[in-house]
Amino acid sequence: MSPVRRCSRTACGRPAVATLTYVYADSTAVLGPLATYAEPHCYDLCAEHSERLTAPRGWEVVRLSDPSAPTRPSGDDLEALANAVREAARPQDRGTGGRGGGPHAADPMEVARRGHLRVLRSPDS
After folding, report:
1. Between these two residues, 71 and 14, which has the higher pLDDT value?
2. Does residue 110 have a pLDDT over 50?
3. Closest Cα partner for 115 from 93, 92, 89, 96?
């Protein structure tokens, strides 16, 4: 017998990374880290099948995380990243240096601006 446990799904030979069990009384499917040993009433799933797992209508899927597995970015992480990108894209408040022009006077190479795009003048003109 192979030391590597395989996915229980038909025709899938990938290595198992998670174990699926059912609690029929609570209409709950529990997907957690790979169990220490295989049991006949549990199903071992590969990464792809564990990510795509769905349960019948009316059932709840409980996903237990593996503390040793790398974590995915949360919604808060993604929102913080989006805010940082927005902040970096904001025009900086540059001093006009006594030129007294509009917002383009601080950058002599910038000719026009539309949204986040800039039209630049050639350096030799």
Report:
1. 14
2. yes
3. 89
pTM exceeding 0.85 = no
Strands (DSSP E) found in the chain: 18-23, 28-33, 43-45, 60-63, 110-114, 117-120
Average pLDDT over residues 60-77: 73
Cα–Cα distance measured from residue 35 to residue 45, given in angstroms and rounded to the nearest whole number: 11
Q: Are 18 and 52 in contact (CB under 8 A)?
A: no
Residue among 62, 53, 58 nearest 29 (CA): 62
Name which of 50, 49, 41, 51 is nearest 21 in CA terms: 41
